[in-house]
Amino acid sequence: MDKWYKCKETSDGVIISSRIRLARNIKKYSFSSAIKKEDAEKVISESRNVIENAEVLEDKYSYMDLQTLSEIEKRKLMEKHIISPYLVKNGDRAGVILREDESVSVMLNEEDHIRIQAIRAGNNLKSAYEEADKMDDLMEDKIEYAFDKDFGYLTSCPTNIGTGMRASFMVHLPYLEKIGHLKNLIQTLGKFGVAVRGIYGEGTEPSGSIYQISNQRTLGKSEQEIMDTLQNITVQIIEKERNMVIKKLETERVVMEDSVYRAYGILTNCRLLTMKEAMSRLSEIRFGYMYDLLKEKKPIHNIYHIMMNIQFGNLQTYAQKELEEGERDEIRAEYLRKCFEV
Amino acid sequence: MDKWYKCKETSDGVIISSRIRLARNIKKYSFSSAIKKEDAEKVISESRNVIENAEVLEDKYSYMDLQTLSEIEKRKLMEKHIISPYLVKNGDRAGVILREDESVSVMLNEEDHIRIQAIRAGNNLKSAYEEADKMDDLMEDKIEYAFDKDFGYLTSCPTNIGTGMRASFMVHLPYLEKIGHLKNLIQTLGKFGVAVRGIYGEGTEPSGSIYQISNQRTLGKSEQEIMDTLQNITVQIIEKERNMVIKKLETERVVMEDSVYRAYGILTNCRLLTMKEAMSRLSEIRFGYMYDLLKEKKPIHNIYHIMMNIQFGNLQTYAQKELEEGERDEIRAEYLRKCFEV
Q: Structure pTM?
């Protein structure tokens, strides 16, 4: 079963992926910040029990205990957005249940007892929601969630109370970023309860012109309303990016081709590449393919997949060894050349 | 008969070419600055007469009158170092006699009545001198030169009095330039009567890390002494460049490979390239081949030949049409990609 990010479509559109996250807590235990270790262990065993014995789940799921994972394995999972830094911080009592294709995961003892996540390539929020909802129903059937009839699902952080849902799109916005339009846009969207963040969420720098657009409010709105709002706003942003690019192409096609081909020439030839530069070159190349400016053959993986693979942790999978800091840029450049040698 | 610069060796070593120039004047006429137009015309007819009727010359020579040459043709000849801006300035009474392989030329009514130039690919000053000397003997046999038994050949500018000879090497010194060692070197060499200049002589900016190293003094020294001094000094400079590069390669090979491959990646992919950037990328690529850092196939012409071909005038030969200023960078990039598609 192929990983969700191997999907071909992820390199074609502005929307790389759609994601739903549901925050849930088990009624009988204190929230994660105050939970006793033995109760935290029960959160894990009870949750595993539900999923591992569920007859309705067709796909293979496996459990990973953070205590037994190496630093590199944890890093790789973070780079793939499967686990969060918060979960790693709770490493002495935390774990994750992961579907084989990595599209559905359940973090245990993160900020909340249970965090269900479903991710889909491309513009597929509804399908991601259905997956998350299926897992949620399954667990709710056996586990009594902390739920209030007025407030909805109760969560560790008040911002998640209500549906406990965060919906998000991962989008690629190289042009709006380049011309400096994103800052204003981010401020405006904030007023509508929509956050735009870097690829690794809150407080991280945007990298490779990839942004997460997500709802901030979950209280007083239905899941459908949250998704509709996010979908509408995201479509508007995408259209803005697209229209501006198309207009620019009318007068400056060669200049834009030049810039894309330079990125391609450097990436496919250089011998040393930092993470920051690699992300930026890959972003330009992705842009080039999207607008048919770049006629070269597409690489072996889609660009977002490559972006994951060149990060420190995942790069070691390619290298098949631990990489010293001094070696990474060289191995990264080598790996990238290989990706484009098709 | 192939042009001298098509020689393969010119892209392999630090010395691109060796050149001898002899300044001569006809005794019976005033120097160029004061010459009457009818006398200037006689300078041309008498010189042409000697060369066109010489039985000893095996190669084909042809005469070009500057009055009948188009602006582009003049530009192309300047870009190839066959004629000088000074000759173009005297265009109403000037001409050039050129050997088919462009290695020997005689400018008529430049700063002096007669300027014989012989050029050879690589480190071949002696052979260049022999060619120039042969032409000089031929003309001196039929024309009475302005000559003083104490001072030697009399020339328009006092710095040329004596042998009237300027010997020069065109060298490629990317590393000394890069690390900023050339400025001091140029000052030091000045004390020994040796000048280091940019690719287009006095007052021009160095481009593509290419320099002309030439003698400044011609009085009180024999031709052999001038050439020996220049040869010794140039060999020392080359060894300095080479030794420093080799030392650097011991510790920073990958960094240098990276830099060379980036230049190659950009040059062979980009869609717009200014003259300045093209020269700089070609210089890095030449350096890469020279030290075996760049493993890609060599281009269709040697790098110095390509450097000539991408200049404004010669680029039109490739384009087969007049190029507007806005088109040049695009055509230059296209031409360069073609050169490396081997």
A: 0.91
Taking CA atoms, B96 is separated from B27, B81, B160, in Å, by 20, 12, 20
Q: Which residues of B touch A (CB under 8 A)?
A: 254-255, 257-258, 261-262, 264-272, 330, 333
Kindly state whether residue B69 falls inside one of the protein's structural domains. no
- Which of A260, A271, A297, A327 is most worth mutating to test chain B (most B CB atoms within 10 A of its CB)? A271
* pLDDT of residue A122 exceeding 50: yes
Chain A residues touching residue B258 (CB < 8 angstroms): 270-272, 333
Q: Which domain holds residue A251?
A: 246-339
Q: What is the pLDDT of residues B208-244, one digit of tens each?
A: 999 999 998 877 889 999 999 999 999 999 999 999 9
pLDDT of residue B11: 47
Rounded CA separation B43/B50 (Å): 11
Which of B258, B264, B271 faces A261 most closely, judged by CB atoms? B271
Task: Please give the Cα distance from B31 to B110 (Å, whole number).
Answer: 10
Assigned domain for B269 exists: yes
Tally the domains of chain B: 1
Q: Which of A245, A231, A227 is nearest to A291 (CA)?
A: A245
Q: Is residue B235 part of a domain?
A: no
Q: Do A257 and B268 touch (CB under 8 A)?
A: no
